[in-house]
């Protein structure tokens, strides 16, 4: 826990117009936009380098599961034309190279300060400024703060007794070493089978002498069907990039597909199976979700696709008992984020790879030698934790953010995040969030969602400055309405029925609130635009 920041000196003049916290996709684009407005802007980044998620998640196999050509900035046609993606799904190193290219091309680095973690921010109600404090001892006074801290940046430390006693090497997928980790001849354990675990497992298995996966909940994973992009494909895409980008911006989730029109239950089994085969073969994360209208709202409809995936697992994994262990049965398909994999299930056919079903033999403790489950001790040399994140709110409540009346964001969000449009939380004026809680964020292509937020925030700040307005705040009424609306929409789906990180259920003590907006990016964009109409009259301005 950081020490609480000191109250600001009375109404000190701002040294900066904007501080942006984080130098990932969000922070880089926000810097580009605010600088174009002529604002004195600085990005403060905790890590040694830029890249955010794509800097930290360097584990073997880390790869985006949205197609590279769609998971990239749309704001610069020149950038679209000059950058070449090598594969359908970009690896982490390629995404990081892309972000470095963006930083260089738009000359962003000069306003980014690395190795500087924002520890707190206190609002000065008299001066309408924020006093931002850092772990380097710096204090910066700024009019606006943009939290570009990402959805998945607060790593969830393994809540397992004895975690610190392990005498071998402990790694976390979200904090993998920069240098190569040689696992040749080593006995490796992986704890966790979410998207990170299932991407890492096939590659770790290529090196390890023995790989043991400790699985608490199996996932539904679809084959990525990744492949190199040919020169002809790239040329064809570049020719139609302008239309593609425009369509992305109008889309429901930032990727393009024909929305389904029928229920899974109104077609016969043969037709359903054919649709699911097509979705499975598409190599697209939402390939199965988009088949029928009711996959995420009707349990019986959902079960048809869930059983389809289980049948695929049985067809790939040769040992029937292992196939059953890997088959999700406790939650509907899609209510925890599905994964795209490359060879995940087939990895279990290798003789040196095994899975421990923690629902039958739970982990009791980590020991100096390895992992003790209820039936035995598994001696290993390396433990790779793939145990996930305190998603969406974790990075924000980790900072001591003190708003009006001395209220902290942590206190205000004790029962779950509260804000208007996911953008501003009442009592914390001039403090914007990019793809944070109660916005489409993790349910959409993150880059498209980021661009929508950054552009809205930029337009808002431009309006305030043009009109001599020094403070914008969410009203408690608008905030209450938005929180209720987000919860109402989520309640119409199967999502809240499941313990997932979407619900905050993976972090002990975190309130159970559905953390994202399920109405889709298109509808959300319209809500944000409506709130900006008439000079942002949905907000309190002064
Ligand atoms: O984390 P997760 P992640 N003992 O929370 C298990 C994005 N992402 O890093 O489900 C034993 O999904 C936990 O088990 P359970 C994407 O949005 C994207 O994999 O709680 N097990 C689960 O199996 C994704 O959804 C990409 O029962 C424990 C796993 O650890 C999000 O990030 C790639 C445990 C955590 O899974 C998070 O994914 C990677 C314990 N004490 C990530 N604690 C791409 O774009 C936790 N677990 C491809």
From TrEMBL:
Cross-referenced Gene3D superfamilies: FAD/NAD(P)-binding domain (3.50.50.60)
Cofactor: FAD
Presence of keyword Calcium: no
Entry annotated with the keyword Metal-binding: no
Transmembrane region(s): none
Keyword entries, A-Z: FAD, Flavoprotein, Monooxygenase, NADP, Oxidoreductase
Pfam families given in the database record: Pyr_redox_3
Recorded family membership: Belongs to the FAD-binding monooxygenase family.
Name of the protein: NAD(P)/FAD-dependent oxidoreductase
Species, as recorded: Streptomyces nigrescens
Lineage, opening ranks: Bacteria, Bacillati, Actinomycetota, Actinomycetes, Kitasatosporales
């Amino acid at each position: 826990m950081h020490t609480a920041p000191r109250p600001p000196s009375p109404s000190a003049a701002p040294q900066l117009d904007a501080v942006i916290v984080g130098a990932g996709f969000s922070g880089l684009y926000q810097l580009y936009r605010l600088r174009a407005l002529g604002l004195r802007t600085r990005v403060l980044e905790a890590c040694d380098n830029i890249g955010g998620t794509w800097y930290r998640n360097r584990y073997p196999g880390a790869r985006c599961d949205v197609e590279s050509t769609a998971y990239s900035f749309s704001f610069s046609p020149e950038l679209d034309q000059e950058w070449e993606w090598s594969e359908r799904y970009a690896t982490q190193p390629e995404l990081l190279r892309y972000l470095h290219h963006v930083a260089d091309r738009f000359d962003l680095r000069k306003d980014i300060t690395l190795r500087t973690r924002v520890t707190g921010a206190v609002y000065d109600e008299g001066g309408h400024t924020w006093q931002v404090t850092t772990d380097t001892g710096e204090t910066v006074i700024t009019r606006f703060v943009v939290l570009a801290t990402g959805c998945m940046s607060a790593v969830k430390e393994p809540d397992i007794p004895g975690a610190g006693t392990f005498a071998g090497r402990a790694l976390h997928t979200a904090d993998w070493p920069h240098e190569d980790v040689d696992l040749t001849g080593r006995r490796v354990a992986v704890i966790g089978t979410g998207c990170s675990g299932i991407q890492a497992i096939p590659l770790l298995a290529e090196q390890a002498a023995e790989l043991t996966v400790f699985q608490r909940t199996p996932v539904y994973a679809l084959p990525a069907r990744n492949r190199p992009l040919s020169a002809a494909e790239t040329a064809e895409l570049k020719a139609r990039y302008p239309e593609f980008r425009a369509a992305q911006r109008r889309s429901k989730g930032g990727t393009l597909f024909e929305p389904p029109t029928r229920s899974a239950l109104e077609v016969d089994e043969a037709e359903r199976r054919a649709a699911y085969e097509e979705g499975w073969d598409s190599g697209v994360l939402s390939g199965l979700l988009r088949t029928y209208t009711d996959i995420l709202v009707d349990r019986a409809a959902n079960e048809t696709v869930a059983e389809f995936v289980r049948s695929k697992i049985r067809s790939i994994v040769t040992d029937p008992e292992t196939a059953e262990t890997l088959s999700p049965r406790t939650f509907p398909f899609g209510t925890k984020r599905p994964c795209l994999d490359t060879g995940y299930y087939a990895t279990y056919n290798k003789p040196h790879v095994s899975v421990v079903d923690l629902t039958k033999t739970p982990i009791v403790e980590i020991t100096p030698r390895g992992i003790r489950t209820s039936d035995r001790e598994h001696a290993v040399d390396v433990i790779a934790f793939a145990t996930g994140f305190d998603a969406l709110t974790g990075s924000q409540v980790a900072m001591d953010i003190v708003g009006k009346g001395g209220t902290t964001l942590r206190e205000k969000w004790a029962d779950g995040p509260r804000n208007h449009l996911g953008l501003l939380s009442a009592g914390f004026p001039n403090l914007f969030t990019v793809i944070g809680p109660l916005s489409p964020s993790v349910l959409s292509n993150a880059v498209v969602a980021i661009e929508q937020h950054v552009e809205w925030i930029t337009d808002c700040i431009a309006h305030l400055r043009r009109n001599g307005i020094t403070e914008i705040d969410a009203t408690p009424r608008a905030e209450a309405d938005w929180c209720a609306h987000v919860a109402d929409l989520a309640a119409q789906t199967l999502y809240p029925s499941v313990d997932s990180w979407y619900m905050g259920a993976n972090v002990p003590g975190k309130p159970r609130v559905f953390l994202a907006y399920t109405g889709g990016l298109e509808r959300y964009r319209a809500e944000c635009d409506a709130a900006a109409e008439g000079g942002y009259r949905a907000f309190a301005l002064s």
